[in-house]
Amino acid sequence: MSISSAISSALLGLGFNALGAQIASGNIANAQTDGYGRRELVPMSQATRHGGILRDVDPVILADRRAVDAEIGYSESLDAAITRLATLRSEGQEDRLITALGAFQNALTIAAANPSADSRLVAIGSAAESLVGEINAQASALADLRQEAESRIARDVHTLNSALAKIADLNTRVSRAQPGSEHLATLLDLRQKEVDAISALVPVKLAERDRGVIALYTSARAVLLDGRPAEIGFTETPTIAPHMSLAGGLLSGLTLNGRNISTGPGGPLSGGALAASFALRDTHLPAHQARLDALASELASRFGPGGPDATFAPGDPGLFTDLGGPASPAPQVGLSGRLRLNPLVSATSTEPWRWRAGLMATGPGEVGDASLINALAARLDARSVPADPALGAVSKDIASLGLQLSSAIDGERVGLSDKLASVRGRHAVLREMELRRGVDSDQQLQTLLTIEKSYAANAKVLQTVDDMLLRILAI
Length: 475
Fold this sequence. Notes:
- Residues 306-334 are annotated as: Disordered.
- Keywords: Bacterial flagellum, Cell projection, Cilium, Flagellum, Secreted, Signal.
- Residues 438-473 form the Flagellar basal-body/hook protein C-terminal domain.
- Belongs to the flagella basal body rod proteins family.
- Residues 84-303 form the Flagellar hook-associated protein FlgK helical domain.
- The chain is an alpha+beta fold.
- It has a domain at 84-148 and 283-420.
- Helix content is 59%, strand content 9%.
- It is built from eleven helices and 13 strands.
- The strands form five sheets. It has a four-stranded antiparallel β-sheet with strand order 5-6-7-8. Strands 9-10-11 form a three-stranded antiparallel β-sheet.
- Helix 2 (59-89) runs parallel beside helix 5 and helix 4 packs antiparallel against helix 5 (182-201).
- The longest helix has 59 residues, at 118-176.
- Residues 46-51 have low confidence and may be disordered.
């Protein structure tokens, strides 16, 4: 080997070693960075289409993990909302609505034992107000959760459009990048991170195009990106009232490139966190709202005209009113938020005797007469088929109907939690497989030691050549 060949080989070796050290140290530094693909330095003769620096990821594991990301996004969104609703209903181990119903019934029982005691009659009014307040509070919680789902849809649509635009830009930059360069590997990292962000919102599938460019499709084969990014449209409603729905045209759905698309199961963008927000806004929360409205309607009808209080005339507001007016016997959307106790028997009323004599009575009547109070208590215990089909077609008392509401939420929460636990288990397995293919810090340190020895060897060659040249010059 000539001196010039030795110098050239040693310099190439030093450059190769320096790049290898840079890649290994970068792998160690980014071992926990989302979207980072482990780099490997390979001789150009063995390089893939990416050239001398190979970004090593497993596309099959990555695709499987992204599919589960969408399932987690869907399940977590539903579970978080229903768990929060269950928490708002409960105080410790007690359901506040059941507790309020029991307190109202207990106040009636205590007052019936001594109907002449105004303090006991006032206590009925206080318990009834607490019951109404609890129903109103739960209606308000449902409204808040629907509004939050609406806002979350708007944010997710913005995130989705933004990520698609970034991926389109990265596609262009990837197609222009030099194969095998660190710059290309960095662009691929950035693009993977954006695709991962989308996969939590909408399940996506990836298709390879020329020069490293990718196209994105949903599981339902809707095109999100193929050259140009799709445009997803949504119009946020500032305030959602209980009667507002997508079917009624008062809430916005989604558009894909200006065309209306389904937001329900099986829709083009179904399966991720975005679909979960629509499911909450349009299905799950309205169903709980309907049951709560039905309970409010049942209270109003049982204690209104035709009930135990004979002083009511048809058309009079009953014991429980719709914002002070008579509550319709037909199902009324949003009644639980409008339910009010008749002010004639409120806790602040100066005529508590109306609990004993009747709401529309002209006088206090016999102070020892507990017949109406007993009849009111019996009305709570009476079993009848609810007028609103949202509560089913089985005869039940008021307490059982209240328990039915609580059981519906708890049952849904348990089912969602079990499903989420299963999905998280599958995600953990796939994530472990992905990490195994990722950066092994111990292995990278060993690589650095090998590079150090190789670097020293090449440096020794240059030192030897330098010594030889000095001796030649000294002759």
